[in-house]
C-alpha cells in the first residue's frame, strides 16, 4: 500500500460520463460531496433512505443529480439500488450514524448494533453490491467516510486532532465502528489491487445532523472537498490509506 504522506493538490479531471454514488447524500457531508462532484461534471446518484428527503436534495442540486433510494442497513434496498444505478465509477460510502452511548459501562448493545449495522455492515454491503459495476469501470474509486475518532493511533494518547483527555474511553459504539471502517478500507484496498483507489477519509468535526442538537464544527463543504479529492485520484494516486480532509495522511 502507499507510502505517500500527502495527496496531490490538484484532482484529476474525471473522464466524461463518470458516474458516482454517494450514500446518505441528502444532508451534511454527503450533500456537499454530491454538489462538488456535480460541479466537476460527474453524474451523481444521490442515495437517501428517505425518498422525500432524497428527491428534494437531488432536485435542489439540479442537472446531473439523480435520486436513488438506498437504506444501507437494508440489503434488499441495496440490491434494488445496484440494479437501478447500473454502471458506476465512484462509490462514496458516506451514510453513517452516531447512536450515542459513552464508555464500555454506559453503552448498550443496541447502540453498538446500530452503529455497526449502518457504519460497518452497511458500508460492506453497499461495496459488495456495487463491486461488479466498479470492476467494469476504467478508474474505479471507493471513498469510505470514516472518522479520526476511529484512529487507534490518535486514540492511544494525546494528539492535536481532538481533546484526548476529555474523550478517552468514550464514544465506544461510534468510534469503534469507524475503527472497523478503517480496517475494512485497508483490506479492501489490498484485495482489489492498485487499479482501484480505495481510501478512507477523516472529515474533521463538522456542523451536521450527525448528533441531533449538537451541530458544532466546521463547514461540511470543507470535508466534502477531501472526499472529492479521493474520488478523483489519478491512476497513479495512493490506495489503502486514511486521509485527513486537508489531504494529509492520518495514522490508522
Ligand atoms: P448527517 O448530516 O447526519 O449525514 C448522515 C447521512 O447518512 C444522512 O443523509 C442520513 O440519512 C444517512 N444515513 C444514516 N443512516 C442511513 C442508512 N441506514 N441508510 C442510508 N442513509 C443513512 O451527518 P454527516 O456528519 O454529514 O455524516 C456523514 C458521514 O461523515 C458519516 O459517515 C459520519 O460518521 C462521518 N463523520 C462526520 C463527522 C462530523 O463531525 N459531522 C466527523 C467524522 C465523520 P437521514 O437524513 O435519513 O438520517
Walk me through the structure:
This protein has 252 residues and is α/β, with parallel strands linked by helices. The protein is built from eight helices and eight strands. An eight-stranded mixed β-sheet has the order 3-2-1-4-5-6-7-8, sandwiched between helices. Helix 1 packs across helix 8, helix 3 packs parallel to helix 4 and helix 4 packs parallel to helix 7. The radius of gyration is 17 Å and the shape is globular. The model has no long low-confidence stretch (mean pLDDT 95). It binds NADP nicotinamide-adenine-dinucleotide phosphate. The site of NADP nicotinamide-adenine-dinucleotide phosphate has 30 residues, from helix 1 and helix 4.
Supply database-style keywords.
single chain; alpha/beta; 8-stranded mixed sheet; 8 helices; 8 strands; binds NADP nicotinamide-adenine-dinucleotide phosphate
Protein structure class: alpha/beta
Could you name the ranges where pLDDT drops below 50 across 5 or more consecutive residues? none
Large-scale geometry: globular
Helical stretch tally: 8
Number of strand elements: 8
Approximate helicity band: 40-55%
Largest sheet: 8 strands, mixed
Compute the gyration radius: what is it? 17 Å
Strand content is: 5-15%
Q: What is the subunit organization of this protein?
A: single chain
Strand and helix order: EHEHEHEHEHHHEHEE
> What strand line-up does the widest sheet have?
3-2-1-4-5-6-7-8
Q: What is the rounded distance between the termini?
A: 13 Å
